[in-house]
Amino acid sequence: MPCTTLLAGRNATYDGSTMMARNEDSGAGHFTPKKLVIVRPEDQPKVYRSVLSGVEIPLPEKPMRYSAVPNALPDEGIWGEAGVNECNVAMSETETITSNARVLGADPLVKGGIGEEDLLTIVLPYIHSAREGVQRLGKLLETYGTYEMNGIGFQDTQEVWWLESIGGHHWIAKRVPDDAYVVMPNQQGIDSFDFLDAFGEQQDHLCSADLAEWIRENHLDLRVPDEDAPVLEETEDFDVRAAFGSREDADHSYNTPRAWAMLRYLNPRSCRWDGPNADYTPEDDDLPWSLTPEHLITVEDVKYVLSNHFQGTPYDPYGKYGDLSLRGKYRPIGVNRNNFVALTQLRPNRPRELAAIQWIAMGSNVFNAFVPFFPQVDRVPEYLGEVTGQATTEALYWVSRIIAALADAHFSRTASAVERYQKACAALGQRGLKETEAGFPNGEARENERYLEERNREMTERFRAETDRCLNAVLFESSLEMRNAYSRSDA
């Protein structure tokens, strides 16, 4: 599943929260309606059965309630994708990533294993920290195997972790530095790995217990022989990309340009990104996995980056100037096949019910806007949660798709209406959070939940009114540019 991920540590964000955001994109040639739901403990299966692979997994007792963004149509399974549980632990799954023939020959993918369809459902309700999420998923990968290569994010108020599957049963995980952010396109991304830590204190690195032995047995360590080099278990800067990753021509049009665009936006002056003397180009294989941002990252930054279509570069598909042959050369982050983007923002020093915010936008990110949602509730507003396969303006997913299809075809004429809409929704979201916190009763559990359910409903209704205004404006501007327009009036 093509996607793009951004992770940020607590000292890299404007309010000390941890942030984890990801686009879920459909494959080429189709679109996947999505909805936001709350899964209660009584709705969680005791034995999980995958639709695509057929794997059956007995699940632990006492699951927690959690939010999820599953497929609206159940024909391919759940695909829960992004959520927050009762302990304010979040999970984002998955970033489909690349590998190489050496890895897949040494540990083949498992046809009847687990995959993106399954992971949120079998992990998120049972974990109490980001680290525990890594450990549970790692054990599941070792036990059942996977039929695809994936990157998965875990987050609590203190830490963000990134796990990458290696072949059918192996895995590595690295903690995002507190003062840094991470960019992930559809490519194996971790650049260096500290085996000394992973097999020692495990502060920032975790991996399969037999990973070092497996690497040696299958000649995956590509370091040039050096008698002074430490043994693998004591290596602090192992080149993960050389051992496990890919350097295919397709990466240079599909993957690395997206990482370049995100880094270029968040660190514009740290490196040269453009011109013949650039430090990094869109096709470089050595782009940093993480950087310290030049300014603290905001919710608006996350939305902008994950909506990027190479604006300000020659590669913008909507561009009108410069070398027009370069337009559309690279795969943008914001594409027509974005199903949704979710940002989980976990804020320390808040009551449990207020700590987590799940920002959600549906459809193509170039044209949509974030609405905030407090997930520690039992109900979801119908506008977010009642979605079918039928196009309608009664559901956020579908109205976002309609706006995008109209605006894309008339980009120059509708761009200002879309920009006004996105700014208005961003301001509404921030205002809604302040109002919600100011009125929070901090009483009995059900009283708090009812309050947040009503606040979620009110914020969504405000957002819906702005979305309707945007649809009206985009429809009007698009109608003026219809090909059968004629200047002479009958009046």
How would you describe this structure to a colleague?
By secondary structure, the chain is an alpha+beta fold. 31% of the residues lie in helices and 17% in strands. The strands form 5 sheets. A 6-stranded antiparallel sheet has the order 16-12-1-2-17-18. Strands 7-8-9-10-11-14 form a 6-stranded antiparallel sheet. A two-stranded antiparallel sheet has the order 3-6. A hairpin with a 4-residue loop joins strand 9 and strand 10. The longest helix is centred in the C-terminal third of the chain and has 36 residues, at 445-480.
Give the key terms.
491 residues; 18 strands; 2 domains; Penicillin V Acylase, Chain A; 31% helix; six-stranded antiparallel sheet; alpha+beta
How would you concisely characterize the structure shown here?
By secondary structure, this protein is of the alpha+beta class.
List the helices and strands and how they pair.
Blueprint: E1 3-8, E2 18-25, E3 37-39, E4 47-49, E5 56-58, E6 66-68, E7 82-84, E8 90-96, H1 101-106, H2 119-123, H3 130-144, E9 150-155, E10 160-166, E11 170-175, E12 181-184, E13 192-193, H4 195-198, E14 205-207, H5 211-217, E15 238-239, H6 240-244, H7 251-254, H8 256-266, E16 290-291, H9 299-305, E17 338-346, H10 352-355, E18 356-362, H11 382-385, H12 396-409, H13 411-438, H14 445-480
Helix pairs in contact: 12-13, 12-14, 13-14
